[in-house]
Every structure is written in structure tokens, then in C-alpha cells.
Amino acid sequence: FPSHDSSLLKDSLFTSLSDLVKDGTDRQRISIATWWSMYYKAKYMITGFMNWVDENVEEILGTQLDIDLEDEDGNKVSGKADFVMKIKGYDKPILVDLKSSVKYYQRNSVRESEQLALYYFYLQQTKFPDMERAAYLVLNKQIKKNRTKTCLKCGHVTTGREQTCAEGGKGKSRCNGDFSVDIFPEAVVQYIHDEIPAGFIQDTINKFNVAVEGIKSGNFNQCLSSCDNQYGRPSIVTGK
């Protein structure tokens, strides 16, 4: 990624990408920087995903399964379920939704997801009657660097945060040698599976029915506070 810095910062007021992002006003350059960042992170995230599948999945029962939840009046909730899998150590199918995120998901995120609730309800009713759980498989965008430092003076290897080699002590003088640094990037994969309470599923279906009735009557509840959001979050520039 650093090889692209000069082109991204050309004719810019900023001397570093971090300053560009912190300022937040040059959305075009930030968008390009974000794209290149994900371009390089993606290979580690894909590798992490494939390694997780190899280590944990016994069988893939379906991918990109169509969701067509329909009420008696023909109103539909449509979607695609990423996976239904059999996970090692658990003998029943699990609905697995693949996500990417900069943060760890909360432990209760599965049982509180309206999307998973609807998908789970449909698949249990139509294709997998023995399904009892759903899951999130989250690929974290914050790549672990796994930094290893080797002292150029004494050869001591460490993963610590010291700036110079701390080898020595107890009557021996501290080495203080400089380090050579090797980085072995790795994506963190978070897996959360849980039951989705029947009451929560029914509440989600009820919300869908209320929304349908609102559409029929022309009653649309506006969420004006989200108008300036970017990617689902308040704008960096406006702060709204």
C-alpha cells in the first residue's frame, strides 16, 4: 500500500495518508485509499476464511440459498442466505451469515438479528426442519501484524514493544541492539453461533406486518437523522 501514497497525495495538502483520513474532507482520495487498503487486506481475509472452513466445517449443505418469505397477501421478504453448514462437533445444520467488520461482534448479535431471524425461520420451515441455530462468521478488517523482532547485535528474538534489545540483566549489561522486523499479517475470524428465540422471530414477523400495513396506507416513518450518513454511519464531515 505505501507504494500508492505518492499518487494519492499528489496535489494534496497532506503529507501522510493518516492526516488525509483524519481531516476527512477529501472524500474522493479517502475512497481511493480505502479501496487500496481493502485490496491488500482481502487476501488475508480470504485466507483466514478458507483456513477456518478447512478446520471447522464438516459439510456445506447449501450456499446462496434463496429466501422468499411470503405472507397470505403475497407480500415478500427476499434475500440470499450465505451458507448452511454442518460444523464439526455439532450434528445439525447451522445457518451461517458471512460478514466483514472493523469491530468484534457482540456475543448476543445472532439472537438479536432480525435478518437472521427471518432467514432462519424460512429455512427451518422449508428445507432444514432440524435446524436449531444460526451463526455469524465475521472477517475482521483489522489485520493482525504478528510482528517479530530480531536483534541485529545478539540475535535475540522478541515480540515485545521495546525499541532496542532488552536482553541482559542480572549482572549483565543490557544489549540495546537495534532490531530487524518481520511482519506476518493474519486476519482474525470470529465465529458466533446461537439459538434464535421463538419470541424474537415472532416479533420480527410482526414488525414486517406493521411495515406492510404502513406501506398500504401510505404511512412512511421517515428517519431524517440518517440522511447524511455514509455507509450507515454519521458523516465524518457533518458529524450528523
Secondary structure: elements and pairs:
Blueprint: H1 5-9, H2 17-23, H3 27-56, E1 57-70, E2 76-87, E3 94-101, H4 114-126, E4 133-140, E5 147-151, E6 157-158, E7 179-183, E8 189-194, H5 198-217
Helix pairs in contact: 4-5
Word description of this protein:
There is one protein chain. This protein is α+β, with helices and mostly antiparallel strands and 240 residues long. Helices cover 31% and strands 25% of the residues. It is built from five helices and eight strands. It has a five-stranded mixed β-sheet with strand order 1-2-3-4-8, sandwiched between helices. A three-stranded antiparallel β-sheet has the order 6-5-7, with no helix packed on it. Strand 3, helix 4 and strand 4 form a beta-alpha-beta unit. The protein is extended.
Give the fraction of residues assigned to helices.
25-40%
Based on CA inertia axes, which overall geometry fits?
A: extended
Q: H/E order of the elements?
A: HHHEEEHEEEEEH
The chain-level mean pLDDT equals: 87
Q: Poorly predicted ranges (pLDDT <50, ≥5 residues)?
A: none
* Structural class designation: alpha+beta
Number of strands: 8
Query: Rounded to an integer, what's the Rg over CA atoms?
Result: 25 Å
* Largest sheet report: 5 strands, mixed
Alpha carbon gap, first and last residue: 31 Å
Residue fraction in strands:
25-35%
Strand neighbour order, sheet with most strands: 1-2-3-4-8
